[in-house]
């Protein structure tokens, strides 16, 4: 039995392989917010890497991970968990906070 791989099928296979390899290189971080404070704080991630953040909101109120320094963020209802991506970011120190409780939640993202 012979199988014929058309050019479009070959391209699809190549794109799928690249996407899987890229996903394997992504970094995953667990982050929680309780009493409007993020843990761990400060948060450290690798430079030049796309990072998946899984945010566990342990408060009963909505929290929003947000930054004025970089793109990315997520609104998470009280008692819920959500994932999102940030980066890749250059080495440096960035700030992030809960949009609804900025003064209590402001902390740093250290990228190195």
From TrEMBL:
Gene3D superfamilies in alphabetical order: Cupredoxins - blue copper proteins (2.60.40.420)
Residue ranges of every copy of the EfeO-type cupredoxin-like domain listed in the record: 10-111
Highest classification ranks of the organism: Bacteria, Pseudomonadati, Pseudomonadota, Gammaproteobacteria, Pseudomonadales
Domain of life according to the entry: Bacteria
Classification via SUPFAM superfamilies: Cupredoxins (SSF49503)
Organism of origin: Pseudomonas corrugata
Signal peptide stretch: 1-21
Keywords: Signal
Record InterPro entries: Cupredoxin, EfeO_Cupredoxin
Protein name stated in the entry: Cupredoxin domain-containing protein
